Amino acid sequence: AQSVTQLDSHVSVSEGTPVLLRCNYSSSYSPSLFWYVQHPNKGLQLLLKYTSAATLVKGINGFEAEFKKSETSFHLTKPSAHMSDAAEYFCVVSEPTGFQKLVFGTGTRLLVSP
Amino acid sequence: EAGVAQSPRYKIIEKRQSVAFWCNPISGHATLYWYQQILGQGPKLLIQFQNNGVVDDSQLPKDRFSAERLKGVDSTLKIQPAKLEDSAVYLCASTPYDRAATGELFFGEGSRLTVL
Fold it and tell me: Which residue, of A70, A91, B21, B62, has the fewest CB within 10 Å?
């Protein structure tokens, strides 16, 4: 079965500094990987997705993630944090069924201080 | 376009009582999902519908949970009787038929259930 491990439950950064949210995956197949973001009292929103086209994936709001098969990692980064980036971030892997079944990680809460 | 609508947003019940949650997906979205998100955990799929047919309900506790999607549009998730461990946020998501394979889901804001 596919699974993801988010290595940090909380990450704190200052506004303007880089963001790194770590995710490792386990998959028997060539996986599809995603990052979803959940702002307070808002629905989950797709940030970016990897589906084997390119190992460096760019998403919305300046976020990007790099797929590294040798390290089984899919870390999320952003060069400069903004206050509005404060949210819960979920790394997600899909199971290769006919309709993709998403398996979510436990989430990383990003805190951004002024 | 309007997003996924869910109600009620909050519900508090005693254990052994019943509760129902309603979801209206984005217009035209054929695939609908119910997820359970327990505090401190990631969302877990309970059931997936394609139009009004069930695609996957392998993780739905069928002795107490039921879900239906009549006419392939809105959906209801019911819990009867509720247990303390059912306290969670219940998320509804939808996606167009041709995007179900891409993993891009559109989520509602969720219904928060507290069981006392």
Answer: A70
Can you tell me the distance from the alpha carbon of B51 to that of B65, in angstroms, rounded to the nearest whole number? 20
- Would an 8 Å CB–CB cutoff place A105 in contact with chain B? yes
Best CA proximity match to A108, nearest among A2, A6, A15: A6
The arrangement of strands across the sheet holding B5-7 comes to B5-7, B19-24, B75-79, B65-68
Do A43 and B101 count as a contact with CB atoms less than 8 A apart?
no
A79, pLDDT greater than 70: yes
Q: What is the pLDDT of residues A7-52, one digit of tens each?
A: 999 999 999 999 999 999 998 777 889 999 999 888 899 999 998 7
Whether the Cβ atoms of residue B59 and residue A1 lie closer than 8 Å to each other: no
Q: For residue A44, what are the contacts with CB-CB under 8 A and spacing of at least 6? A: A36, A37, A38, A90, B43, B91, B93, B105, B107
Taking the C-alpha atoms of residue B36 and residue A87, their distance in angstroms, rounded to an integer, is 19
Cβ(A66)–Cβ(A57) under 8 Å?
Answer: yes
Name the residue among B40, B100, B109 with its Cβ closest to that of A43.
Answer: B109
